[in-house]
Amino acid sequence: MKILKYLVPYIVLGSLQYKFTKDGLGYASPFVFMSLRYLIGGSILLPFAKKIMINKDILILTLLTVTSSALWAIGLTYVDPSESAVLSYTMPLFSIPIAFFVVKEKLRLFEIIGAIVGFAGVAIYGLSLSARLSLLGSLLTIINAVFWASFTVYYRKIKNLDPLVVNSSQLLLGSLIFLS
How far is residue 27's CA from residue 77's CA, in Å, rounded to a whole number? Predict the structure, then answer.
C-alpha cells in the first residue's frame, strides 16, 4: 500500500498537465512555453546531477524529446486536453515496434494483443468524435506519440548513463533549442 502514496499524486499531477499546458498556451507560444518548462525542469535537476553531458546520445534524445513536446504543445492548441491525453497515450502502440527495431526487444503475444486492443479503442474513440476533432491537431498529437515512444525507447538504449545527468542535460539543451 506504500506505493499508493506515490502513485496517486503521480496520476493526479500527470493527468492535470494537459489542462495546465492548454491554459498556459493561452499566454505563451508553444515554443516559449516548452522552453520555460524544460529550463525549469533542467535547472531543478542540475544541482543533483552536478554536471551537464553533451554527446551523440544526449543530442539524439534531446531532438526526439523536443520534437515530441513541440508537436504535443502545437497539437494541444487545436484539441481539448482530454482529446490530447487520449491521442498522446497511443504512445505504447508505437513503442512496441520501435523497441523491437531499436533495442531488439522481443515481442510478446500479450503486447501484440494489447496493442491491437488499444488501437481499436483509439480508432473507436476517434470515429465517435470525428466531427468534432481537429484533423491537424489530432495528427500532430499522434505524431507526438510516435516521438514520445521513440525517446522512451531511446532512454532504454542509454540506460547505463546517469539518469540525472541525462535528464538535466537534455532538458537544458532542449530549452535552448526551443528558444532558437
Answer: 12
| Whole-angstrom distance, CA of residue 180 vs CA of residue 173 | 11
CB 133 within 8 A of CB 126: yes
Within 13 Å of residue 97, how many CA atoms lie on the same side as its CB?
Answer: 8
Residues 6+ positions from 51 with CB-CB distance below 8 Å? 165
Q: For the segment 9-62, what is each residue's pLDDT rounded down to a tens digit?
A: 877 887 788 888 989 999 999 999 999 999 999 999 999 999 999 999 999 999
pTM listed for this prediction: 0.86
Of 14 and 152, which is predicted with more confidence? 152
Angstrom distance (rounded) from CA 99 to CA 137: 26
The burial class, CB within 10 Å (0-12 / 13-18 / 19+), for 130 is exposed
d(CA 9, CA 179): 31
User: CA-to-CA distance for 106 and 157, rounded, in angstroms?
Assistant: 14
C-alpha–C-alpha distance, residues 158 and 165, integer Å: 12
Q: Helices in the chain by DSSP H: which ranges?
A: 4-24, 30-49, 56-76, 81-88, 91-102, 109-128, 135-157, 163-179
